[in-house]
Amino acid sequence: xxxxxxxxxxQLQRLAAVPKADDLFVPMITAGSDRxxxxxxxxxxxxxxxxTFRSATAKPPVLSAPRLPRNRRxxxxxxxxxxxxxxxxxxxxxIHRNLDPWSIIGSFGDEPDFRLTGFEWSMRLATVEDxxxxxxxxxxxxxxxxxxxxxxxGLMIAELLxxxxxxxxxxxxxxxxxxxxxxxxxxxxLRKLTGxxxxxxxxxxxxxxxxxxxxxxxxxxxxxGELKLAAAFRLDARSQLTRDIRLATGNEIxxxxxxxxxxxxxxxxxxxxxxxxxxxxxxxxxxxxLGNQMTYxxxxxxxxxxxxxxxxxxxxxxxAELARPHAIIGSEVLLPEMLDILPAGKTQExxxxxxxxxxxHWQPHIDALKPAExxxxxxDRKYEAFALLTALEMAYAVADIFxxxxxxGRPSEGGNHGVIAISRHDEEREALSKLLLFRTSPAxxxxxxxxxxxxxxxxxxxxSLAQTGSLGERDVENHWRYVGVDAANxxxxxxxxxxxxxxxxxxxxxxxxxxxxxLTQLRRRLKALRALREHSELLRMLTDPRGRIExxxxxxxxxxxxxxxxxxxxxxxxxxxxxxxxxxLQGPPGVGKTYAVSEIVRRRFMDEPTSRxxxxxxxxxxxxxxxxxxxxxxxxxxxxxAVRARPADDDASDTDLEIDRQADIWxxxxxxxDLVEEADPIVRDKIRDLAAARKAKxxxxxxxxxxxxxxxxxxxxxxxxxxxxxxxxxxxAAVEQLIEESSxxxxxxxxxxxxxTGSELLSPLLLSHRRLMIGDHQQLAPYGAxxxxxxxxxxxxxxxxxxxxxxxxxxxxxxxGIEEILNVIEVDEADFGRLCADTLAVLTLFETLVRGEIDxxxxxxxxxxxxxxxxxxxxxxxxxxxxxxxxxxxxGTIKTNEKVENKYRKGSPxxxxxxxxxxxxxxxxxxxxxxxxxxxxxxxDRAPPWVNSDEVTAALQVxxxxxxxxxxxxxxxxxxxxxxxxxKLRQTIRSEMATSLKHLSQFEPALGExxxxxxxxxxxxxxADAVLISLVRNNEKATVKSALGFLEDSRRMNVxxxxxxxxxxxxxxxxxxxxVMSYSEKVPTADIGFLRKFLACLEMxxxxxxxxxxxxxxxxxxx
Length: 1119
Description:
By secondary structure, the chain is of the alpha/beta class. It has 43 helices and 38 strands. The termini are far apart.
C-alpha cells in the first residue's frame, strides 16, 4: 500500500510539470500517513464536486436550464476544460479510470472553471456497502482504457445537456433527431466520445477543436437571440429614483403613476443609450446608463431577503440625475432593443428568479469598458526577463557576422576554387560592436577567430559567405574552408577554398561555421521560451523558489553506503531526496558533486526501478563524464534503459548508450522475441524488416539506412520517450523533442549549472516538476556573460544595442515574446531598468538562486527548510593545494577528507623532479623577474594577444625535469588563461617531444585530443595528477585591470588553482603581483582580495614546508 501511495504522489508531481496542469487539475497540497492509512490532500479552491450541484434541490441555472443557448455554451466551455485535462492526462500515459461527476470540481460561476480530479488513486478499495457511484461515468464497470475515459465523458456531457444517453448511442436515430435543442455537430461529438461512431483513434486535440467550434456556433446563435439586458428601476412613490424623475420633469408625473414613470424611462432610453463606466471620488468606478435627458446609475442586483452576492445578471437603478458625468473611463452605445426595462416592485422581483439564466449579463459589457491596461505580474516580468535575454543573445550572434569585401582567389592545387575575403569597415556593424561592449572592432575579432581556429586545428571548415548578413539568412554559401592569410594584400585579407565558385562579389559578410549550431540553439531557446509562457508552475518556482516547498516522501535509507559518505554528502543527500520541487547544490572543486549525483541516481533506481531521470549539462564533455560515473555506480542488478541523446555518428569512441545503438539492441531483441513471433504477420514482418535494415547499415550495404527509414526514427523516438535515464545537453535536439512531446521525467538533474545561462537551463527545467541544479557560481561564469553583465547595468545601452541589432534578424528568427520586448523598449522607459535587472538575474540564474538562499540563511530569526546545500569536504587535491583554494575563494570553509589527507601526506606522487633545482613539494612557484624592477630584463608579457615567451621557456624547463616513478602513466596538464600562450606552449612542447621531452609520453595527456595544453576555460571539471600553470601577465601597466587582465577574475583563478591532485607548479612573477597589490590599495574599486589571500597562503605554505618558491635564475642554471 505504501508503495502504491508513493507511486501516486510521484504521478501527481510529474503531472504538475505539464503546462496548464495547475489550471486544469485540482492540485495536491500535501500527503501523509498515520496509523489509519495513507492520504493525499487536494485543494479544490472555491469549487465543489459536480455531483453536489447535480443532486442539489436548488440547482445552478446552468444545470436547471441547460437547453438555453447561454447555459449550453457555458457547459461546453467547462467540458472543453475537462477534455483538455483528459488529453494532458493521457499524454502522460495515465488512464483516469473513474471519470464521473465526483471527479470534476467547479463553481458554476460566470466563467468556466471545471478542473479534473479523481485519478489520483490507481487502486480503488471497495467500501463495506457496495453502493454504485452516481453519474454516467460509474454506470458500467468496463476495462479501464483511454477510450473508456472518453466514453464516460461523452455520457456525462449528454446527461448534463438534458439528452438521454440512450438516444445518443441509438444509431437508428439521425443526428438531427437525437435532441431538438442540440446541433448536428454537438450530437456528432457525443457519438464520437461514446464510441457510437467508430474512429480509429480518439484524438484529444481534435475533440477540443470540435468543441471550440461548437462554442463559437452557440455564441453566435445567442448573440442573435432574444436574450436582453434586464434592468430593474425602483419606481415607487417613496423611491429616490421617482423623486429624481419628477424633479427632471417639473413634477408632471405623479409619484404613484408607475406606468407613467416607466414610460418616461423607456422613452428617454429609446434613442442611443450609452452604457458608461465613470470614475468615482474614491478612485473606483461606477456604472451609468445615459439617456437623452438623464443619467441612470446602475448597481448589481441581489434578491431581497437573501445574503447572495450581488451580480450584474440584472442591473438595478435607484437614482438618476440630469447632469452628465465628467470622468468617463469608457462607454458603449447600446441598441434600445437590447434593453428590458422592468419596474422593480414586489411582484416583478418574484419574476426575477424565473428569469435567471434567460437574460444577457451586463458584466461582459461593463468589463469591456475598462481600460486595456495590463498590470504585469511577477510571472510576466520573469517571462519578459527570459525573452530579453534571448533577444540579447540574438544581438550578440548578429555581431559575429563580419563585413568583408570578396575578391576571386587563385585555385588550389587540388582544383578547389579560391576566394579572398578582406575585412571592410561597416559603420553600423562597428556601432553594434561598441554598443555590445566588445573591446575590439569586427575586423580584429575576425582575425582572432581565424587565428584561434588555425591554432587548434578546429573552426577552419564550414565558413559561409552571405550577401546581406542577416541572422538566419537562408541564401548563404556554406562550403568555404579557411586556408590562411593572403600575404599579397597589405590589408587584413584571408584566403578561403571551396568546391564551387562563389556567386557573391564585392561587399558581403563572412559567417563562422559554428553559427549554424548557434542558430539551431537559438531556435530551440525560442521554442522553450514559448513553452515557458504556458508553464505557470515553472514561472512561479523561478519567481519564488520557496513558494511551495514540500516533502517528497521518498525514503532516505541510512545503509552502509550512506554511512560511507562524508557528513556533508549525507546532509545533502537527506535534504535532496526529501524535498520537492527544487534544490540547489553547490559543489566547490574536488568535493565530489558528480559522485553525489551518481548516489542519488543509484538510490532512485534501487527504490523505484520505473523512475525516469533526465541528466543534463551545458557541454558534451560534462555529460560524458557524468554518464560514465553514474553508469559505473549502478549495481549489476539495476538495469534501467539508459540513452545518451545526441546525433548519431559512427565515432568509435561512442558507447552503446547512444540512441541509435540502443535502438539496434532493443529492436533486435524485439524481433527475436516470442511476442513478435506470435504477433500478426504484418506486424511481425514489419518489425523484422526494420531490424534487418538497421543491421545493414553496419555491413556497408546501406550506410544511410537508419537516417532514411521513417520507422527507424520513430523507433528511436520511442526509445527516447521510454528511457529511464536520459543523458543530454541542455540545448540538444533530444530535449527539444521531449518538450514538444510533453515527455516528462520524475527528476531533472543539471550539472555545471553555474556555467549555463538561464536560457540554456530553461529547456531541461521544463521537463520535470522536480529539479536539482548543481554547480559552483564561484568558478567559471557562463560564456560571454561578462560583457552582457556590463551591458545590462545600463538600460539605455541595452535599448540602443537591440535597436541596432534587430534590423539584421531575419523575420523567421523572431518570436512573439521578442516582439513584446521590443514594444517595451519603445514605450516603457520607467520599467525597463527593472527589466534589465531581472534579466541580469536570469543570465546568471544559478548564482542568483544560490545567493538568494545564502541571504535567506543570514536571517537567523526564521527557521527555513533548506533548499540549498554546499558540499564542503574535498577528495581531489593534496591538502596543501586544497587549503589555498579554500582560503582564497571559500573563506576557509572547504576541508580535506581524513582518508584523502592521509593518502597525500603519507604517500608519494607517481612522478618526481630529476634534480634538486625543483623541490619535491605539492606546490612549486617558479618566480620570474618583474619586468619593471630587473635591469636589462626584456621579458614579460606581450599584447595583444597575450603571450609570455619567458614563461614558455620556464615551463619547458620544468617539463624537462619531470619524470614518472612507475608505469601508472600519471596525468599531466599545462594550463594558461590565454589562447595565444596555450598555442605557443603547445607548439614548443610538440617540437621537443622527440628530443628533450620524449619522456612526456609516459604521462597521460589530461586534455585528451588536445594533448597536454589547454586554457582554464576548457579544463573546468577536469583534473590531473600534475598541473603546470603559466600566468603570463608581467608588465608595467598603469591600472589594475590592464595589468592583470584575466588574472583579476577570481572565478578563473579558482578553476586554475584547483585542477591539480598531487602537484601544482605555477610560473609567474611574485614581485609583479605584489606591486599590483600595493597599487590596488589606492583604487577603491579594485576587487582583487583573492590575490592578497593567495600571496599570504603561498607564504604560509612555504613556512609549513608545503610550498617552494624557486627563482627563475635558479631553475635556468644547468644542474
